[in-house]
Task: structure prediction
Amino acid sequence: MKIKEVMVKDVVSIKPQENAYAAWEILTNMQISGLPVINAEGKLVGMFTEKEILAHMLPSYIEKVGKFIYKENPKSTRNKFLEFKSMAVSQLMRREVVTTTEDATLCEVARIMLTQKARRMPVLDKSGTVVGMIARCDVLKALAGEFQE
Result:
């Protein structure tokens, strides 16, 4: 089965210059964790996700200390949140985006998701335009549907 058969075709996207807080509200209202960022030319330039927001809120050394206890600093967290409210999506978005094509198979996309630790991927057509989104849950549902008797 090809991804174009199961991808979400009605893609909601955001622009790089949009307010990050407003973009987060879209994530919250839609109950999703990420959106593609598409520029004025219609090209994918990044992904805006909850992960990038959290990375902004927490101290930069958090990935290095791993499982050590992080002592909360309410003033620092508050300042980061206030800063976040006035940032543009382009300041937080991930620029390196794992993508797939609409002709990729379910198993190929599952492999990419696992090896690249991707939760969702924009689906591109031959010209590089975003034509859909595929999430891990979509892949799992499609695989389950294919193999049920």
